[in-house]
Amino acid sequence: MKKWIALGLMMIAGLSGCTLSDGSDESITLFTQRHYDVDQQLYDQFYEETGIKVNIVSANADELMNRLATEGEDTAADVLLLVDAGKLHLASENQLLQAVESDVLNINVPSQLRSPENLWFGLTIRARVLVYHPDRVSPSELSTYQALTEPEWEGRVVTRTSTNIYSQSLTASLIAVYGEAATRQWVRGLVNNLAHSPRGNDRDQAKQVMSGEADVAIMNTYYMGRMLTSADPFEQEVAQTLRVFFPNQETTGTHINLSAAGVTKYAKNVDGAIKFIEFLSSEKAQGIFAAANYEYPVNPRVEMDDLLKSWGPFKAQDINLALLGVHAQRAVIIMDEEGWE
Ligand code: FE
Questions:
Q1: How many A from CA of 50 to the centre of ligand 1?
Q2: Rounded Cα distance, 60 and 273, in Å
């Protein structure tokens, strides 16, 4: 509902050529895929500090990118914020973003977490891990994504469908690190060991492990945090019972993805847009922005949430995350050819 009000207001603002408040305020328009209350608090704080108001349009990644492409020069959007580095890469390939030179961003965002051409910048990190039931699995039995293809895991693993972007980006990351042939073998072995046809979202994967349908799920860390504070008692129980394991720690690292933002190609307020992304990467904003969804801050000087600390430090895949987009198409083809439903 909220987003349609925002959309409506934006269209009025666009038609009248003025900002939403008293007309004297500077503003930027944010196209975002994120939808957390705390994000709004940060945008309010940004306004208090800079006098720049943030108009929000929220929708999913493809809707926002389609709209940017369709609107072209006429778009009101100054900043595009998505929750998958591969999608940001696609946006840059489709000429929807512009390069930004910012010393602040270069310091706050490590180089592998931003586009090589400075077209987008990571803001929060999510890790795709193994979640297991401690009654049925000892952490000593777990090691890598690849080990899940061994015979002892037959019928014991669950994960999401191949149409899901998280599955696609994980597979793309393995292509980046191991190449296509090895990744194809991994997909084949994983499909072979699945407990059943993939179904449901990340939370459902955990619930399937809880209920005994499987012993290990591949899922994003932050859903464990979100279920821990869920209003649903079963979700709380799931999060309290199951355990997180970071795969590939002795080898190539755990797959990570990003919330990331870029300045749109036809931004009307480029300076405001850069200031906004700089603000979200700052030490002040990062703790709140990342903790809102139990994600890891990109800014290495920022402390992480207590729950994340309790899972301990981990090694991430050492690749530039633009590669998730570079290999996305091949990932989808391989998953399809190997029968990942
Ligand atoms: Fe998610």
A1: 31
A2: 20
pLDDT tens track for 122-173 = 999 999 999 999 999 999 999 999 999 999 999 999 999 999 999 999 999 9
Share of the chain above pLDDT 70, in %: 93
Tell me the CA–centroid distance for residue 104 and ligand 1, in Å. Answer: 28
Question: Residue 10 Cα, ligand 1 centroid: separation in angstroms?
Answer: 27
Residues 309, 37, 277: CA angle, nearest 5 degrees? 75
Residue 71 burial (CB count, 10 A): 14
Q: When comparing pLDDT for 122 and 6, which is higher?
A: 122
Distance 224 CA to ligand 1 centre (A): 11
What are the structure tokens assigned to 322, written together?
A: 């633009």
The pair of three-digit structure tokens given for residue 93, joined into one six-digit string: 């390939």
Catalogue all structural domains in the chain, each as residue range(s) with its CATH number: 23-125+257-310 (3.40.190.10), 127-255+316-337 (3.40.190.10)
- Is residue 6 within 8 Å of 231, Cβ to Cβ? no
Rounded distance from Cα 271 to ligand 1 centre (Å): 30
Query: What is the mean pLDDT of the segment spanning 214-242?
Result: 97
CA of 19 to the centre of ligand 1 (A): 32
Average pLDDT of the chain is 93
